[in-house]
Amino acid sequence: MDNDTRRRLGRIVLIAARVALAAIFLFAAYAKMKPQPGMPWTPGSVRTSLSMFAIGVDSYEMLPPWAVSPFAHFLPPFELFLGLWLLSGYGMRFSGLLSAALICAFILAMYSAYRRGLTISCGCFGQGAQIGIMELIRDGLIFLPLALIVTVGGFLSKRKRTGSTLPQSSASVSHAD
Amino acid sequence: MEVFTDYECPTCKRLFEETLRPMISDYVAAGKVYLIHHDFPLPMHKYGYEAARWLNASARVGQFQNVEAALYDHQESWAADGDIGKYVAGAMSPTEFKKVEAQMRGCGLGAPAAVKSASFALGGQAGSGDACAVDFYIEADRALGNQIPVTGTPTYVISYKGHRLPAGSGVVSWPILKQFFDSLLSQ
């Protein structure tokens, strides 16, 4: 496989990982913010869904009571923002890094709940699947590697861009001299 | 709000004491929330099924609330020695207790054999041979729980305007649940 093909393949993998990660965050945000059955899309119904998500956050028994509601109202819009940011492709190394950090935090929270024997819903994509090995495997072996691919890819492509502009800038500096 | 509980489950005790108690005196008493209790005794708890029997028998003489509170208050004690009747008797008058005891006649100790079997999770019915009258209510609740499906206790399901919302489980603190009810009721 020549360098050109390898580079092209790397770019395809990076785009696929970035779009998949963006889709995961966008779906996670949608699942948490979508109105409950029988309710129309209104700011009030979205607030109700976020309050429902707060119940899920509270069941992890990790945050102090005063922090549960602000966190539950912040996380889904943040996931929406992160999904859109990943989709845009701007500052990929930062969006990737932030995604990886967030997924690591989710894994730690789930592992902690699992270790404490809590039989609670994961809350990852709204109320649903109970925390278990499958959720930990999904986050650890699928979501986290995707975020790491985006992060590493973002750093590598930034380095390549910086590397390719260096001779030009040094040329202009030496020319100015 | 429908709550599926096992009286011997420590998390159910916490949900009752930290959330359901203030909720009953606040929102249930005010008619804002309708609370439905469902039994879901788990096979891992030695006296959970028997406690559910005592509760159902007490409910039939109008003493559900008092006995529920008494059983949760003394959960560690009866979970250790199985002497549930003592706490049931303490939560009602002697006449009422006699009626409860009459309901419990014919009930063997522990869960019916079929409940202990592997068919538990699939909603298998209790064997008629050793089942007592109140087992019917417990089995009806368990069958309902298996439809949800309830995989652990406590599990709660909130319905609003005929729509059943996704089930939640574990402990939720009253201020957070109250916030959700307020949001729901303001719709």
Verbal overview:
The complex is a heterodimer of chains A (177) and B (187). With 177 residues, chain A is mainly alpha-helical. Helix content of chain A is 79%, strand content 0%. Chain A has five helices and no strands. In chain A, helix 1 packs antiparallel against helix 3, helix 2 crosses helix 3 and helix 4 packs antiparallel against helix 5. Chain A is globular and about 55 Å long. The C terminus of chain A is likely disordered. By secondary structure, chain B is of the alpha+beta class. In chain B, 50% of the residues lie in helices and 9% in strands. Chain B contains nine helices and six strands. In chain B, strands 2-1-3-6 form a four-stranded mixed sheet, with helices on one face. In chain B, a hairpin with a 2-residue loop joins strand 4 and strand 5. In chain B, helix 2 packs across helix 6. Chain B is globular. Chain B starts with a strand and ends with a helix. The relative contact order of chain B is 0.18. Classes of the chains: A mainly alpha (177), B alpha+beta (187).
Short description:
By secondary structure, chain A is mostly helical. Chain A is built from five helices and no strands.
Structural class of chain B: alpha+beta
Gyration radius of chain B (Cα, Å) is 16 Å
Helix content of chain B: 40-55%
Order of secondary-structure elements of chain B: EHEHHHHHHHEEEEH
What's the topology here?
The complex is a heterodimer of chains A (177) and B (187).
Chain A: H1 3-33, H2 43-59, H3 65-88, H4 92-115, H5 133-176
Chain B: E1 2-5, H1 10-28, E2 36-39, H2 48-59, H3 64-73, H4 75-81, H5 85-90, H6 94-104, H7 113-116, H8 135-147, E3 155-157, E4 159-160, E5 163-164, E6 168-169, H9 174-185
Helix pairs in contact in B: 1-9, 2-3, 2-6
